[in-house]
Amino acid sequence: MPPVIDHEKCIGCGTCADICNSDIFVFDRKVDKTPVVKFPEECWHCESCVLDCPSGAITLRLPLSYSLMHIDASLLHSSQTPCSASSKEARS
Amino acid sequence: MIAVKPCIEADLLIVGGGIGGLMAAISAAKSGCTNVVVMEKMHARRSGSGATGNDHFNCYIPSYHGDDIRPVFQQTMQSLIGSGKEPSLMYKFLKKSFELVQMWDEWGVNMRPTGQWECKGHALPGKPRAFLKYDGSEQKKVLVREAKKLGVHFYNHHPVVELARMDGRIAGALAVDISTPVPQFQPVRAKTVLLATGLTHRLYLTAPTPAYMFNTGHCPNCAGGQGLGWRVGARMVNMELPYTHAGPKYFARCGKATWIGVYRYMDGTPVGPFTDHSNIDYGDVTSDIWNSVFEDVMAKGTGPAFMDCSDASDKDLEYMRWAMKGEGLTSLLNYMADAGIDPKQHAVEFMRYEPILHGRGLDVSDEGETSVPGLFAAGDMVGNGGCGIALAAYLGWEGGHAAALQAAEHSFRPAEDCPNIKARMELLSSFLEREDGADWKDANMALQQIMSDYAPAGPRKVRSERLLQTGLIYVRQLRENAMKQLKVTCSHTLMRAAEVLDLMDCGEALLAAALARKETRGNHIRADFPFTNPLLGDQFLTVGLESNGEVTTKWRPIRQAQMD
Ligand SMILES: Cc1cc2nc3c(=O)[nH]c(=O)nc-3n(C[C@H](O)[C@H](O)[C@H](O)COP(=O)(O)OP(=O)(O)OC[C@H]3O[C@@H](n4cnc5c(N)ncnc54)[C@H](O)[C@@H]3O)c2cc1C
Ligand code: SF4
Ligand code: SF4
Fold first, then answer.
1. Of all residues in chain B, what percent carry a pLDDT higher than 70?
2. Number of domains making up chain B
3. Is there a smaller number of Cβ atoms within 10 Å at the N or the C end of chain A?
4. Which of B92, B115, B135 is the last residue of a domain?
5. Which domain CATH number covers B494?
């Protein structure tokens, strides 16, 4: 789920926890060196944390249910029906 | 009881450090107000719907559009932000808009990335284009910096959970300091207050992923702020008229006008009549005009509909990617790159998102004052003059100025002693003290279920007296149960529980207004009144909570534009 922090790269500055658009991190400097993703399902996937992290330590992972539905654009411009084309693709 | 910090004082308290709030702060400080306080739920540098950028700023630029403002005004009123708005306010906004653009330009927001003023997108072919194309990726940092330069005080991680009204006039607010896991109350005495909490999401089941309520087109943390005004008696307008946005499926994200392509059916035919090829200047405006298009084509079985950019030139697609960054869509771009989705080769399906309170909410004067003296509102939470970045900037600017002038004439009063402030402290404290109880998500989802079933948006789903009455009963029952049962564990969940209570008030206001609009208009489809009544065309319906707890609705004339 949502932001994944690379512990090797993180310098523990706390920026992500401070600026997060959805307040999903908890950072207790006395206990942790890296902020903890406490409320992952509340991430808006705005990427503020990724953009502001000074050490490029954060990547976002979208839940599978958020996947973008898409098809090959050539199907819209061909005489083939998309269904026959995709089943052909699947067989090959 | 949650600990209470010493009261602080503000000549102007701004609730929400988004676009409207930041513009209000700058404007008030420039108007001579020396004690401006911004209370922001998250962190003003990256909060709200404009957190990572926007790219279309509605405006009239004489050197670009020509001397006649009227055609641009007409396009603005017909655009997705203009419908249902107060013409007098909109006209004043449009006249001022270029001044606002120039300020942003001067402060360092990239308002003319090509060096020229250029309007693109959200436009009907052959008509004046009313949206300046800009790069808003740095807008929040710039506005925060400008406000700080002027001495504005920021309290990040301080959601406001209640307003105080004394002898009819606004007197302050109650915030919660959530900067540490243990919450503390922060009462505020304020001579004036400006609400700018953004739109309201999470009132209806999230259309793309009902199980994930934060998968929303705009910022999901903007949720229920209209309820703060509602509880102190500020009247609301347009609550009953559903607003829905559209975008990619299933990752909900605004910014549809930044895509340079054509909405097409599976067989390649364009869905709308406006274009049959990619057009960098106009885009495909179909879904701005035909609000429910993506749902309609699915219901008819002719869908789905895809955004097809494959005929755009490489240069145009490069421009689109650049514009998407300015629009704050880097997460979408990065996801597409990782997933191997290339707009040159792939067509992305679009869908209609759930109803939101966007430009639905507080009823304000052309200067942004609500029906409660001393309480102002700006931005997406305003019912008759909110929707989009430019209107938020305008009403923030006007409201901040008017509030600063008013503050000079008033003194501080003990807002922290107001009975409703004390009652909210007790209620929220009880959530933390409870040994066992309901999660805020249970309550939020319960509300979403009720709203989606009993006050749905048309065109296919209907409302009726029976449905709406039942919905009202259910929302009130839910609120009562939530107050008795909610349990929170820390600052974060306390903030969410307070949001849910605000959302329930928004739900109640919406249902009451929908009951009173005994006609069909837009996507407010009344099965029992299946016609649009022309006699109501020049009136707004307002809804409000009286001091005796009664909910009242009233019709008022729409203020027409006084053209020069
Ligand atoms: C991806 C995307 C692209 C967009 N593109 C455009 C565009 O090109 N053109 C356009 O016109 N519009 C666009 N919009 C919409 C635009 O961003 C909003 O209309 C604008 O930000 C509204 O400003 P606002 O001040 O009303 O709200 P926001 O900027 O959302 O700010 C509201 C603030 O209030 C805070 N808040 C909420 N409740 C509380 C509380 N109780 N206490 C304290 N703080 C609180 C929030 O955290 C937030 O910071 C886009 C939106 C998105 C998401
Ligand atoms: S912003 Fe980056 S470096 Fe700083 S704490 Fe977060 S992950 Fe670590
Ligand atoms: S993507 Fe946005 S909401 Fe998610 S963790 Fe990063 S800053 Fe927070």
1. 100
2. 3
3. C
4. B135
5. 1.20.58.100
- CA dist., res. B243 & res. B360, Å (int): 8
Mean pLDDT of B509-513: 98
CATH number, position B321: 3.90.700
Helix (H/G/I), strand (E/B), else coil: B16: coil
The mean pLDDT of chain B is 97
Mean pLDDT of B253-261: 93
Looking at the structure, tell me whether residues B432 and B336 fall in a common domain: no
Task: Give DSSP secondary structure letters for B379-409.
Answer: GGGBTTT-SSHHHHHHHHHHHHHHHHHHHTT
pTM for this structure? 0.97
Whether B198 is in the pocket of ligand 1, judged by its Cβ within 6 Å, is yes
Cα Rg of chain A (Å, integer): 20
Rounded to a whole number of angstroms, the distance from the CA of B335 to the nearest CA of chain A is 8
> Cβ of B115: how many Cβ atoms within 10 Å?
6
Residue B28 falls within a domain, yes or no?
no
Alpha helices in B408-490 (DSSP H): 419-433, 440-454, 465-485
H or E segment and range at residue B10: strand B8-15
Residue B42 CA to residue B48 CA, distance in Å, equals 8
- Tokens 């597409």 correspond to what residue? B336
- Among the partner-chain residues B52, B264, B335, the one whose CB lies closest to the CB of A46 is B52
| Residue B507: inside a domain | yes
Q: Which amino acid is at B559?
A: R
Residue B500 is encoded by which pair of tokens? 């849910």
pLDDT of res. A78: 81
Q: What is the pLDDT along chain A (92 residues), one digit of tens a residue?
A: 589 999 999 999 999 999 999 999 999 999 999 999 999 999 999 999 999 999 999 999 999 999 999 999 999 988 665 554 444 444 43
Task: List chain A domain ranges.
Answer: 3-91
pLDDT number for residue A1:
59
Using most ligand atoms within 8 A of CB, pick from B23, B46, B222 the residue to mutate for ligand 1: B222
Give the structural domain span for B121: 55-135
Residue A35 beta carbon below 6 angstroms from any ligand 3 atom: no
Here the ipTM equals 0.96
Convert the pLDDT of each residue in B270-301 to its tens digit.
999 999 999 998 889 999 888 899 999 999 99
Domain end (from B355, B386, B419): B355
Q: CB distance from B264 to chain A under 8 Å?
A: yes
Q: Does domain A3-91 have CATH number 3.40.630.10?
A: no
Same domain, B348 and B444: no
Q: Which two tokens stand for residue B544?
A: 């409000």
Residues B242-251, mean pLDDT to the nearest whole number:
97
Residue B280 lies in a domain: yes
d(CA B151, CA B30): 10
